[in-house]
Amino acid sequence: MVKYTSAALVILSTSEVGAAVTTSSAFINLFRKNPKTSSPRSNSRRYSAIPYDEFAENFDDQSVVLPSFPSTANLLDIPEDNQAEVDALLAKKEKRRVARLQRARTSNYQITLPLTGSLVQPPSPSAYEESGGDGASRVEALATLVAKGQEIAVSNTIGMSLRQVYSGRKLSELALDVDTMRFQSFEDEVQGRSVDGEENAQVTGSVQVLQNSSLEIMKESFDGVVVSSVARGGLAWQSGVRAGDILIATSATIGSKLWPKSTLDGVRSAISSRKVILPTMDFEFRRLASEEGDGAETVQSFELSLLRPIGINVEETDDGYVTIMGISDKAAPVVKNNLRVGDRVVSVESSVGAQMWDVYSVDGLTSAVTSRLPGQPVRISFEPISEVDETTVTSKQPPTAPAASTNAVVGFRQAGKSAAESALSSSSTATQMQRKMLLSRSRDLLRTYIARNEVTKNIKVADRVLEAVMDASAVLDGKTLNLIMKAYNTCSDAAKAITIFEEVFGLAGDGSEKEVERIYGGKLSADMTALNIFNISALLHAHAIRGDYESALRVLAAVEGKTEFYIKGEKSRSWSGWGDPLNMLPDTRMYNIALSAAAKRGTKEGLRAAAKIFDNMPNPPLNNPPNNPPLGKPAKNLVTYNIMIDAFAMAGQYQNAFDVFQSLKKSSLKPDRVSFTALIKASIKSGDLEKALDLLDDMKWIGIQPDLVTYNNIIESLSNANRLFEAKDLVNEMEKARVSPDSMTYGLLMNGLLKANKPGPCLTLFESACTDERTAALTENVQLYTTAISAAAALGDHERALDLVSRMNLAGVKPNEKTLTALMGACIAGRNYGTAAKIFLTIKNPDSYAISVGLRALCLAGKFDVALELITDHRSGQKGLTGKQVMSGYNDLIQEALYSREFNVAREALSGLLQSGYIPSKLTFKAITEALNLQSDMPLTSAAMRKRIDSELSDRTFAFLLFVLDSLERRKLSVDSAFYSSILVSAAQTGGLQKRIASLLTRSRKIGNQKVLNLSETPSSSEFASSLVEWEDLFLNYSSYKEELSKSKLFPSIRVTTKDFGRVLAAEQAVVYRGGRVSLSR
């Protein structure tokens, strides 16, 4: 047998690279002094295995002498390799390579199973009837006939059960029998059968059950359906299905298309509906374990990013693998915690690029590791290997206690015990079994919907579970009650969780002595052992959601047996003797929940209460776990410190947050990623961005890898500070650290570019992310598309914005309200007003900003009636739009209506503005003057005069201007000086009646401004009202009022702002007549 020496996988640090090279050169020179040509070296792998690591570290000192060797010839006296063994080893390596490729190609497979049973005929009884002979022959013939019948019965069934796997590799308590479409427990799956070893593995009718090794292969976050058991000889077994395979998809009700499945309910519904239409159904599975050779080899690959020195010894073993043979005591924690002797090295990252290359020799692995630059990590993929002992369940009667394989999942190992106990005990009734089944099924349902975090469904499922439990008069156990309360807490219905706790235990949920009103009339109850730390923690969590730290503290006092604890006038009640005495002592987690409840209150009182709880908890001891300090009271743990740091940071007390962090560093605990992230948030909120960057460097210095949340917080602050280059550098650092940016990272960068008025680079970043296969999936996000559309709007490119929306729909991303609002802005910028108005009308429930943009789109598109109706509906300022947005909407409507010379719409809009209590602003007067092309200064040249004459005011325009003056006077409001001047200048250029009316305006302003009034000549109220005439009425009926102007008619005052008084006087000089005075009002 060939013997190979192990190679130390670099026990080379950055400073030792040169020494290692010197060592290798020394050995090469030594070999060349005494060549040995008589023994050709057929195995080059031995040179990489020379154990120079034992003294390589001494070669930095040139005075160190190499150890003396007895003889160079003896050193090189290496025996010939057995070529047959070498060839066999190479064949094994090639077989392993092919098997690995085959396993990667065939991990998924698809089968077709009948849903209505097969047509195999039962065996004929003639063999038994014709056997004759003695009794032994007839018994043997009968046994053969029964075995044949059992074999046919098994071959007529699918013989497969499925179970739900939740996050954390937790199995559902019930399995779905595909043949009967009923849910069954572990006991039902093995009912009437016993669990045997491998000697019965090939017996038809035995059942292969799920193994722990199969669960360990799955990711912690996996949530789906797995094959729990398969009957040997059944249709599923014959099609290649094995226990541990994952169900990926099933056929649709009609057609051949496969639909993904992740829940038992979904599988059951699909099979039931398919069975009505078609007799067969397609199933797609994924194989997690591959079977090679004599046994099944379960392979779970994982990847580590390591720095030199790695600290592992590897060796090429006879099976063709590069295997870990030793781990150094000085190895990094990531190596010690994840690797073990016997693990195989599968692949290593190439020195250039990110491609992973398969490892087949120590030479290749050493070369890939040593070719790295100093400080550059290397990714290595490993495989832990464990042998799978297939456990079978064979039909036997009567049921006996099984000899289950210890590798089977716990449920199957306990199933045999339960079956044996139930066979020996007759006290178990059918009703009790039904209630037990109900609770198991309820727990599975609750786990499923809690994992999905669907708020509405969580409430409905929890309510239905309660109804079913009360209808069956079942007594809740601790697990079921905990899941019910957790379901209500996850959907923020904390009050319902507290009510359920009070109902089942008859104790006040706030820990006080008040009587509990049982709303279910005592129909809902629980085993008193259910009153334990888990359900009490759920109760505390409900109080934390509500920010009710007073009740949380009272509950803690009740659990501790205190009866003299007062808070807010309520006295606590001792819960001693009510629940499980060994499982009710408060732990650190319970105190942390109360601490979180006080911190979440968001008030000064809540923060003071949190600080008091924190100060009263003992510091973590140096030699004892936090939950078991010498005084017996729960001590602080890392979570406690992190909650307090975050609480001070949220309250703006940044110095207190840093003080807590310093006390954490002085304790026996070490800060983690959460601690630093909370401090970084505090620094950012305090405006000290440099401090946040220093904390990020500190994290990396002590070996804590920042996560995505940490990076995103700093990237956001850098982007807001317009330090975009530093933000981009931080993204590059993330990628080097193997922290993949998410959609939020790109969104922060894009928003930063947009705020910096760089819409072009913003779109370029988005498009580059879309074209990169590594980040293309991240861009399928409605927020990123919305930002990109906003950038297109800033560029005025509405066609690109419309194209982005089309791409969204193709990618299956549904535009939301903000997306459509951004699209409206793009269409407005591109002067495509009709499309913008149509987009607005498609938004079902627009917010205030969308309404504001939509109003502008409707006005620009000429849809004045719709815009007027919309602004009238929102002008109160209480239906979505703010007062500023209402004013902006009225200004847009008045301006666009005047541009279109829709004077009636403009009049109605101005009247609505004044009737709503708003005062026209400078923007309102500016909108009118710009829309009517009015000038507030007299022309100074003849060319300008001729140009003005070409744009003389029409009577309709002048009448509208007078309407504005009348409307303002009714509310005793002042007129903008520039607007007043523009009316006079335009009337002077037009001449005629308009100039005559303008001259009367000047006299009214002067009298009004001087406030001259002869009290003896003041008319009575009735006389004043009958003699008052409005400006527009005077203009339209001047011939009727002409004779009465100097006798009895009074005109409204014109209140003009005092700004630009010189411009006002110049405009008035242009319209003054040298005639007699007219009687005017004040």
UniProtKB/TrEMBL annotation:
PPR repeats by residue range: 637-671, 672-706, 707-741, 781-815
Q: Where is the signal peptide?
A: 1-20
Concerning Pfam families, the annotation shows:
PPR_2 (PF13041), PPR_3 (PF13812)
The source's domain of life comes to: Eukaryota
User: What name appears for this protein in its UniProt entry?
Assistant: PDZ domain-containing protein
Q: Which organism is it from?
A: Stephanodiscus triporus
The record's PROSITE patterns line, in alphabetical order, gives: PPR
Going by the UniProt record, its keywords in alphabetical order are: Repeat, Signal
